[in-house]
Amino acid sequence: MKKIRVTLTVNGHTHLFETDPNRTLLEVLREDIGLTGVKEGCGEGECGACTVIMNDEPINSCLVLIGQADNSNIETIEGLAKDGKPHPLQKAFVELGAVQCGFCTPGMIMASKALLDRNSHPDEEQIREALAGNICRCTGYKKIIEAVQSAAEEMSHE
Amino acid sequence: MEAFDFLVPANLQHLATLLQTPGRKLIAGGTDLIPSLRQAHSLPAQIIDISRLRELRYIREQNRIVHIGALTSFRDVQNSRILNEKAPALVQAAGQIGSPMIRTRGTLGGNIAHASPAADSLPALLIMDASVTLSSQKGQRTQMLCDFLLNPGKTDIHSDEILTDIFFEKPSTNCAASFVKIGPRRGMTIAIVNAAALVGLDNDGRINQARLSIGAVAPTAIRCRLTEQALIGCLPSEKLWESISSIIQEEISPIDDIRGTAQYRRRAAFILSKRALNAATQSLQTRMQA
Fold first, then answer.
1. Which of A38, A89, B208, B284 is the S-S candidate for B202 at Cβ 3.0 to 4.6 Å?
2. How far is the alpha carbon of A58 from chain B, nearest alpha carbon, in Å?
3. Considering CB atoms only, which of A1, A45, A132 is closest to B5?
4. In the CATH hierarchy, which top-level class contains the domain B54-169?
5. ipTM field
């Protein structure tokens, strides 16, 4: 197996490395770059725990081969806080109890961020649709949807 | 995942050359392929990544024909002004595939080439009488989509070919189309049954065009041509939709599987056909009244 050279810009930092091609973007983010906020749940695109934003669009990082991500721009949960302050989505998730075990939270927040980047005032139906690919087994979703609504509200005052 | 070499063609011509060597596997969006690569015990020695071949990602209209590049994502389909106007059932189908993350990566060409009997894009394309273009170093050939789909996971593509273009004639203005699907939940669901319908009405309000396609009730998504014939010349009504039930049952051959029983699928195929025909008719009647 020939190694491949990959350039990734993750949360504003550019990484150059050589790796085996039979790895996913998720594996490289966690194991090589050390960003363990991105989680592996199902490994087949069903659960959304591995959601990151790639070139401004939400994706399942478990379903992208690392070679396919060459030269892409990736945002993960670790890149959201600015100047030591959490992103409004992070703040709302904590304050409104949208986090219980926390395993789905990074994926939920990145899918929500991809929504708010496009639509700053989503209605409940649009939020539910944007999070249809993210499974939470603790909270029952109601508080997650409220947190996204609250973050959207706060961001509109910024 | 087992080991493989990763090849990236610079353009379509380069890809055609790479496909001269047998046994290489193409990856586009990867949403179907990567889960199966993970479970596979023997992998192709070489995987060709076509996900960034920009020349196969387009939606355009030329001389009354709508062309869609094989690497067009479902999100592109949802956002396309041309397809919202000319192929609303395809837009409805794209919007019900997987999750937003799957729709970012998943491609129309991949959905067709993977040839799942439950693929949501297929009924929506079959009612457009869509064709596909297959390209290789030898040149190009086109085939009607209904002939291209052979069996679950099996199409008429040759090992040196790539599916490059999907095309259909722009529908006439006096018809409308609709897509419906049923699964265990609304989001992130593989259809137990899906269906698309296109209905055209003449000035007296009688059906002069009828196309019905149902998925997951036969080895491939199918067109229900006998049902279509039975509808021509009739006035749309609840009674008419009820009357086609027995013809639909003749045209489908569903099986029991993990997602549903054959008996359930027979019932669902009829109900979804009614819903798709009714939605298309109502959308057309509203437009004609406006």
1. B208
2. 5
3. A1
4. alpha beta
5. 0.96
